[in-house]
Structure formats: C-alpha cells, structure tokens
C-alpha cells in the first residue's frame, strides 16, 4: 500500500520535491563558485598589503564583502529548502500553507525575483502560488530582505576591519593608520568640493563675484585712461578717490579734467602779468 501511495503522489508533491532538490544542487554549485572567487579576492588583498597598496586592498575588500553577502543569501535559501522538505507531507494534507513553513514559502517566492543565480526558484514560486495563492510580504524573512532588496555599500569601518582580518589570517603586520589618513583627506576634499559647488549656485555669492569683476574692469579702464592722457601727479591724486566709479562717469572725468587744468594755468598766467 505504501509503495502504491508513493507511486501516485499528487502533482504538487512531485513538483515541489523535485524543485527543492534541484534548487539545493544549484545552490551548492553557485556556492562553490563564489567560494573560489573569495579565495582569489583574499589573495589579491594579501598581495596589495605586501606591496604597500593599502587603498587598493581597501577597495578590493568591498568586492569581497559583496561575495560574502551573496553566499549568506544562499545559506538562508538552503535552510528554507530543508524546511520545505521536512514539512512537505504536512503541506500536502492542508489546503492552506501551514504555520511551520509559512516563512519558508514566502521567502522562497520573494527570492525568485532577487536571486538570478538560482533559476529553480521561479519553478518553486509557480508551484507555491498555484497551491497557496500569493504570499504575504510580512512573512518574508527580514534577514533575506536586508541582504537583497535593501542593499547598501559596506561602511568604511567594516571594509577596514575586513582588511585587518585578512592581514591577521595571513600573518601580515599591517597598520591602518596611513589608510585612515588617506581616507580622511579624501573625505575633506569631497566636502570642500561640495561646498564650492553649492556656493556657486548661491545668488549672494554670484552677486559679490559680479561686483568684484565690475570693480576690476573699472580699475583697468581708468588705468588705461590715466596712461593715455599722461596726467600729472596732482591730477592723479585728485581723482584716486573715484577709482571705483562706473566706467562712463570716469570716462567723462578723463575728458573734462585736462581742460580744467589748462584753464587754471591760463588764469594764473594772466594774474602774474597784471
């Protein structure tokens, strides 16, 4: 009787079991590939540290942390596959998804859109949705969500700590002080650039820049006028107070002032003759 029942299992049981089995095989294959990549990245960081290329090792640590994040996603998925395999008979008896494997079912359905390395997840999602309907987002594992949808770049402290751990693992005496100073200088330079770019859009600063430019242009026009007319020291001193005026008014003074000097000279000559 048991052999008969085993041969005539429902389609849900067969599809779910085969999809789960293939999924675990796929996870094992891609995990080995990622682990090999992690070994290469670690050796790159070791070579950088030996050659004094601390910043290159720091940047490579970000790639290493990304690979570790993906492997942690694989571990979560494999744990849910084991949960499905253990509770498959219970799922077969109930029309609704049992409480014991609701998180596993919802998380595997969710992961089908976020883990492209495991195409078997899409087959498993189709089986679950056909059996239980759409999944509940509140039942998805929060750790899986943090490692997929809400991905963020690792912090500077985490990357430096990763380099420290690798240096310790390979018995390398490494001091992160120089790297911290370099990162601090880069941060300060970026802050200064942001302030400069922000200030360039400020209308007050633009107005001050235009005033300074106008003043410099006025001074250049006046200096050319004084040189061209060859004024005396007295005339230069009398007109120095108005060097910041507009170009038009200064040009008028340039034309009128020499005649005034000539007039005063004639007046002094006539008075001396008398």
TrEMBL record:
Disordered: annotated span: 223-252
Family assignment from sequence similarity: Belongs to the IST1 family.
Any Pfam family the entry gives: Ist1
Protein name stated in the entry: IST1-like protein
TM stretches of this protein: none
Upper classification of the organism: Eukaryota, Viridiplantae, Streptophyta, Embryophyta, Tracheophyta
Signal peptide range in chain numbering: none
GO biological process, one term: protein transport
Domain of life from the UniProt record: Eukaryota
Sequence ranges of Low complexity compositional bias: 227-243
């Amino acid at each position: 009787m048991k052999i008969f029942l085993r041969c005539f299992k429902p389609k849900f049981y067969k599809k779910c079991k085969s999809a789960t089995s293939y999924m675990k095989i796929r996870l094992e294959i891609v995990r080995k590939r990622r682990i090999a990549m992690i070994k290469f990245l670690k050796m790159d960081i070791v070579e950088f540290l030996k050659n004094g290329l601390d910043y290159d090792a720091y940047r490579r640590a970000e790639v290493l942390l990304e690979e570790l994040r993906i492997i942690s996603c694989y571990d979560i998925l494999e744990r849910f596959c084991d949960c499905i395999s253990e509770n498959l008979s219970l799922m077969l008896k109930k029309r609704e998804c049992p409480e014991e494997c609701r998180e596993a079912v919802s998380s595997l359905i969710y992961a089908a859109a976020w883990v492209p390395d495991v195409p078997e997840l899409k087959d498993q999602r189709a089986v679950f949705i056909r059996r239980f309907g759409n999944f509940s987002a509140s039942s998805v594992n929060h750790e899986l969500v943090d490692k997929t949808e809400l991905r963020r770049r690792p912090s500077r402290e985490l990357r430096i700590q990763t380099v420290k751990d690798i240096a310790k693992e390979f018995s390398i005496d490494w001091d992160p002080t120089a790297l911290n100073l370099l990162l601090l200088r880069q941060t300060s330079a970026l802050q200064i650039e942001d302030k400069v770019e922000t200030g360039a859009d400020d209308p007050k600063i633009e107005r001050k820049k235009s005033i300074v430019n106008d003043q410099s242009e006025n001074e250049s026009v006046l200096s050319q006028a004084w040189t061209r007319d060859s004024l005396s020291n007295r005339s230069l001193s009398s007109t120095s107070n108005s060097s910041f005026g507009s170009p038009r008014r200064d040009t008028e003074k340039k034309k009128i002032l020499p005649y005034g000097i000539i007039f005063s000279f004639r007046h002094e000559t006539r008075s001396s003759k008398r």
